[in-house]
Automatic annotation (TrEMBL):
UniProt keyword annotation of NAD present: yes
Pfam name, any one: GDP_Man_Dehyd
Similarity field: Belongs to the NAD(P)-dependent epimerase/dehydratase family. dTDP-glucose dehydratase subfamily.
Keywords: Lyase, NAD
Annotated NAD(P)-binding domain residues: 3-322
Designated name of the protein: dTDP-glucose 4,6-dehydratase
Enzyme class, spelled out: lyase
Superkingdom, natural source: Bacteria
Gene3D superfamilies with a match to the protein in the record: NAD(P)-binding Rossmann-like Domain (3.40.50.720), UDP-galactose 4-epimerase, domain 1 (3.90.25.10)
EC number: 4.2.1.46
PANTHER family named in the record: DTDP-D-GLUCOSE 4,6-DEHYDRATASE-RELATED (PTHR43000)
Length: 352
């Protein structure tokens, strides 16, 4: 049994689906179901007895403690977070509440549970904290990519809150001996990505005939990784990572935002052509995000060398699959856009 937090979100739901597709070990999926949690992501495993969904808040130490006592997981995989940089600029409080206080509450429940385990189970236990490359700050055009020893320099309330959670996790290893693992990953893309983030926003706006907003000059560089490659990296770190260690995860796919948007428009022009013109005609430049980091790049050599992980997708194969997924899942997109996905809790949760 593993205990996943935030498993109704973008990466968490991909992780739970991949996990259950690959082995029979059950998953407790603990998620608050904020606007970012979408039970439609889990529709194919909603009735699967290996998937135990529980709505709750990671900051609710007593609730988490009761679930750990009931299910006795051998590992925690911690995805739950507020994750959108723009939202953190307009309303940072929720980011401190969930990412910092929530992670602290979760760690406290896990520490108490772990401390009471027999020695052999303590040694085998893992707390895997899923984090971001944004904690390292921004790079100049000629700077070397972030390594695991790059100094933290978070620039947004989102990245600062994730940096704080990384430090808490680190401290629980050094102070209490909790067997923690931390992954710092670059930007993910793929199925079930909420359309407030760049790639799904561009695909859904393009098809709706809406403007395709580009912040500033569009030359901000991000390192992109297909979500199932991130999930594979997490499984590998869980399996073979050394407690107390940090692993950077990235796809060696640095792209300027404008280039990503051009690629998306060009794929859509082929797969779903407009009556006239190109999707590129919808590109609109908007005022840049305050404090917008210029470049992120991940040096993933440690996880490649020590754990033998490598991404299976290139940017070209992954981005094509992603566009095709959105074209094939218009119902999922419509439910998100109309807000219908939020009705799931009212309709289903009480009956389970
Ligand atoms: P997401 O916003 O899509 O999903 C977050 C999930 O956490 C949602 O299901 C939400 O309901 C849940 N949640 C929020 N607050 C909660 C709380 N207090 N208690 C329980 N559940 C709560 O996020 P994502 O993009 O899937 O990211 C998952 C994790 O991976 C985050 O920790 C994020 O920092 C990290 N990460 C994301 C990326 C990326 O590109 N998306 C890259 C690297 C790391």
């Amino acid at each position: 049994m593993i205990f996943v937090t935030g498993g109704a979100g973008f990466i968490g739901s991909n992780f739970v689906l991949d996990w259950l597709a690959q082995n029979d070990e059950p998953v407790v999926n603990f998620d608050k179901l904020t606007y970012a949690g979408n039970m439609n992501n889990l529709a194919t495993i909603n009735q699967d007895p290996r998937h135990i969904f529980v709505q709750g808040d990671i900051g609710d130490t007593e609730h988490v403690a009761a679930l750990l006592a009931e299910h006795k997981p051998r590992a925690i995989v911690h995805f739950a977070a507020e994750s959108h940089v723009d939202r953190s600029i307009h309303g940072p409080a929720a980011f401190i509440e969930t990412n910092v206080n929530g992670t602290f509450g979760l760690l406290e429940a896990v520490r108490a549970h772990w401390t009471a385990l027999p020695a052999a189970e303590q040694a085998a236990f893992r707390f895997l904290h899923v984090s971001t490359d944004e904690v390292y700050g921004t790079l100049g055009a000629n700077d070397a990519p972030f390594t695991e020893t790059t100094q933290y320099a978070p620039n947004s309330p989102y990245s600062a809150s994730k940096a704080a959670s990384d430090h808490l996790v680190r401290s629980y290893h050094h102070t209490y001996g909790l067997p923690t693992l931390t992954t710092n990953c670059s930007n993910n893309y793929g199925p079930y990505h909420f359309p407030e983030k760049l790639i799904p926003l561009i695909i859904t706006n393009a098809r709706a005939g809406k403007p395709l907003p580009i912040y500033g000059d569009g030359q901000q560089v991000r390192d992109w990784l297909y979500v199932s490659d991130h999930c594979a990296a997490i499984r590998r770190v869980l399996e073979a990572g050394q407690p107390g260690e940090v692993y950077n995860v990235g796809g060696w796919n640095e792209k300027a935002n404008l280039d990503v948007v051009h690629v998306l428009c060009d794929i859509l022009d082929k797969l779903d052509p407009k009556a006239a013109g190109s999707y590129r005609d919808q590109i609109t430049y908007v005022t840049d995000r305050p404090g917008h980091d210029r470049r992120y790049a991940i040096d993933a050599r440690k996880i490649e060398r020590e754990l033998g992980w490598k991404p299976a997708e290139t940017f070209e194969t992954g981005i094509r699959k992603t566009v095709q997924w959105y074209l094939d899942h218009q119902d999922w997109v419509s439910d998100v856009q109309s807000g219908d996905y939020l009705k799931w809790v009212a309709k289903n949760y009480q009956e389970r």
